[in-house]
Amino acid sequence: MEISAKQLSKSFKNTIALENVTLEVMRGELFGLIGPDGAGKTTLFRILTTLLIADQGNATVSGFDVIRDYREIRNSVGYMPGKFSLYQDLTVEENLQFFATIFGTTIKENYDLIKDIYIQIEPFKDRRAGKLSGGMKQKLALSCALIHNPRVLFLDEPTTGVDPVSRREFWEILKQLQKSGITILVSTPYMDEAALCDRIALIQAGKILEINTPEQIVKQYPKQIYNIAADNMYTLIQQLKKYEYHYTVYPFGEFVHYTDTRPDFDPETLKRYLESHALRNVRIEKTVPTIEDTFMELAK
After folding, report:
1. What are 159-208's pLDDT values in tens digits?
2. Checking DSSP bridges between strand 64-65 and strand 56-61, what pairing results, if any?
3. What is the rounded CA–CA span in Å between residue 255 and residue 283?
4. pLDDT tens across 7-52, in order?
5. Is 153 helix (H, G, I), strand (E, B) or coil?
6. Do residues 189 and 239 both lie within one domain?
7. Which CATH number do you get for residue 250?
8. Distance of alpha carbon 80 from its chain centroid, rounded?
9. Apex CA 133: angle with CA 131 and CA 137, to 5°?
């Protein structure tokens, strides 16, 4: 086991950020912490990286206690916070050199670990970090977090605000890093990224809702979901919410995800109801649940 958190709680004045959070991350695992803004992801990361002390509970990283052994943890982990926090007036190369120096190493010593990432930003090595694009900043921050060859990598919402192509490239990089033996704990509000992790923890309002593989979490969804579309999505949602047998109604891309309270649900009956309320081109078809559907169900 690489990371262990037991009954962690943390409050800020009258706001509960974490409530009895318990989780374990295995060595070499790519573990995802999935939840919306304000769910408690950053607070948990800051406790595990020794930047914040929990009100109660205990935690270890690589066998080191987060309070007693904070120096050892800081030397053995890499941390990429959600907000770009490198020195914006320093160039790409200067930032990387600085972080290597404070960890008592050199770029050359661990270059093989960051090579595949760094070669993508090397053409801009003399550009100030503050002038980089979102995707380039992301790669530079990851390079700086890896330059001392950490055992554990903490990535707090690394793809927020980044274009879809850069997001995909970033996850490909994480898969390669995992193969090198690094344990990765990554947080994200994007439910589609959950499927890229070995295991995930769904977190909401400071509480862990479920921990399992993405596949097993989806299998737990209790009902058949239907994709419903019509020519007026706003009216469609309003009428579905007024339907006496509705269980859940959530917008999902070009469709509405709908579940019914009846075990013998007949789509044709619902279609006639919707058409009687001036909706046209109504389409109803079965679909499979997603992580997002399961999250919404658990959060209820």
Report:
1. 888 888 888 989 999 999 999 999 999 999 998 899 999 999 999 999 99
2. antiparallel
3. 9
4. 999 999 999 999 999 999 999 999 999 999 999 999 999 999 999 9
5. strand
6. no
7. 3.30.70
8. 13
9. 85
Question: Of 173, 192, 219, at which residue does a domain stop?
Answer: 219
Q: Which tokens belong to 233?
A: 């999505």
Backbone φ and ψ of 71, nearest 5°: -65, -45
Dump the DSSP string for 192-259.
Answer: GGGGGSSEEEEEETTEEEEEE-HHHHHHT--S-EEEEE-S-HHHHHHHHHHSTTEEEEEEETTEEEEE
164: enclosing H helix or E strand: helix 164-179
- Under 8 Å between Cβ of 97 and 109: no
d(CA 193, CA 195): 5
Query: Contact, 117 vs 173, CB < 8 A?
Result: yes
d(CA 182, CA 259): 41
Q: How far apart are CA 94 and CA 124, in angstroms?
A: 12
Chain mean position to CA 149? 23
**259-to-226, 233, 240 alpha-carbon distances in Å:** 6, 17, 10
What is the span of the domain harbouring residue 293? Answer: 225-299
State the Cα–Cα distance between residues 189 and 153, nearest whole angstrom.
Answer: 18
243: its two tokens:
């339907």
**Cβ contacts of 113 within 8 Å, gap of 6 or more:** 146, 147, 149, 177, 180
Beta bridge partners of 183: 152
- Residue with the two structure tokens 């380039």: 136
List, for residues 109-151, the tens digit of each pLDDT value.
989 889 989 999 999 999 999 999 888 999 999 999 999 999 9
Please report which confidence band the pLDDT of residue 75 belongs to, taking 50, 70 and 90 as the band edges: very high
Contact call for residues 77 and 49 (beta carbons, < 8 A): yes
Domains contained in the chain, number: 2
By three-state DSSP, how is residue 180 classified? coil
